[in-house]
Amino acid sequence: MGKDIKNDVVFSLKILSISLTLTKLLSMETIQLKSYKIAFQKQAYQELNALIKNQSYSSIYILVDSNTNALCSKFLSEQLEADVKIEWIEIEPGEEHKTISTCNEIWKTLSETGADRKSLMINLGGGIVTDVGGYAASCFKRGIDFVHVPTTLLGMVDAAIGGKNGVNLDSLKNQIGIIRPPKLILVDVGYLATLPQEEMRSGLAEMLKHGLIDNEEDFFAFEDLSQFEVEKLPELIHDSIQIKTRISEEDPFEKGIRMALNFGHTLGHAIESYHMENPKKTKLLHGEAVAVGMILALKLSVDVLGFDKTTCDRASRVITNYFKKVDFLETDISNIHSYLIHDKKNTAGNINFLLLEAIGKPKINCKVTDEQIIKAFAYYKSL
Length: 383
Ligand SMILES: NC(=O)c1ccc[n+]([C@@H]2O[C@H](COP(=O)([O-])OP(=O)(O)OC[C@H]3O[C@@H](n4cnc5c(N)ncnc54)[C@H](O)[C@@H]3O)[C@@H](O)[C@H]2O)c1
Ligand SMILES: [Zn+2]
Description:
Elements: H1 2-23, E1 31-32, E2 37-40, H2 41-55, E3 59-65, H3 66-71, H4 73-79, E4 85-91, H5 100-112, E5 119-125, H6 127-139, E6 145-150, H7 153-159, E7 164-169, E8 172-179, E9 184-187, H8 197-214, H9 216-220, H10 233-250, H11 265-277, H12 286-305, H13 309-322, H14 330-342, E10 352-358, E11 361-367, H15 370-382
Parallel strand pairs: 2-9, 3-4, 3-5, 5-6, 6-9
Antiparallel strand pairs: 1-2, 7-8, 10-11
Bound molecules: nicotinamide-adenine-dinucleotide and zinc ion (ZN).
């Protein structure tokens, strides 16, 4: 029964998005940050058009991947009011294309088509398009303006927010990049209407994370699936964006509190890499690995920081409602542990964890023993 309910919920979220696309009635408050705005729905297109007018851009480049070109570009171009040249640049979708060579192609196109320092780049897509586009724009002629228009749930609540842009260096993720804010972030939840369910879940994992590190109410809004009001989703997306912006504005260069955004990701990344590199294992989506990582981190929070055990059980149930359980053998656990040791964030043989004293009370640099990690996996298996 659980599985059907999960699918129903994700399906309902999609239906909601479709109805929003049709009505466009939704209004959500603009988030004003130090150097730019995050605007929503219809109002966001007005902000974009005003920006284009006020900044007198010489030309506009819209970066898409082949999926967002097919599914999202028409709607954006219908909303755009610009009397300058608009060029579309399409890249291949997929993490393997988040590279400097994709940027090279973008830079060549910009150069060959006469882009100058007053050109604007609009990145219409998921986290890959916004990461690549933000970086390519930040380097071209030492930096041109860019706007993010995230079209995935993960893009809206996470990747497009916080000013980090970059590409991978072979298998090393996000090794080359820059922290530079966009001119505007335009969030239109209508784009989610065509997003595959798995991708919805990936974004949901980050929303659950934001709830755990900052706001109990947002987290437990996902608890009772029979009571879950899908109409609340846009509001929850708005809250989630606010949590990420607040944390990243406070600590743009990740010296302290921004590390809270890594909750569930230390073990999550190790689990993700292990499943990716081991041919006998089924590949996990980032969100699926982070979902496991968050449950393990909740249990570690109980054992290391005295986080309330009943809340840990309750929160873990919320997560397993949406994400399938992953099987771990003893050999898997010791292999995952060796991935942890190689994680660049760990210094001098210590594995540093971001844990919680309570929901909304993250604590950085927590030391965890091997036994505690093994116990956390045993807890996960027992759920
Ligand atoms: N910069 C940051 O702070 C930050 C934070 C988190 C994640 N990221 C990065 O984000 C990337 C993942 O982002 P993602 O999950 O959005 O992946 P993605 O960009 O690959 O998008 C997922 C898939 O959905 C497709 N798609 C996008 N919008 C769609 C739509 N509206 N309808 C149908 N299909 C659509 C894409 O073409 C792609 O196939 C990773 O590279 C990750 O490192 C960056
Ligand atoms: Zn993540």
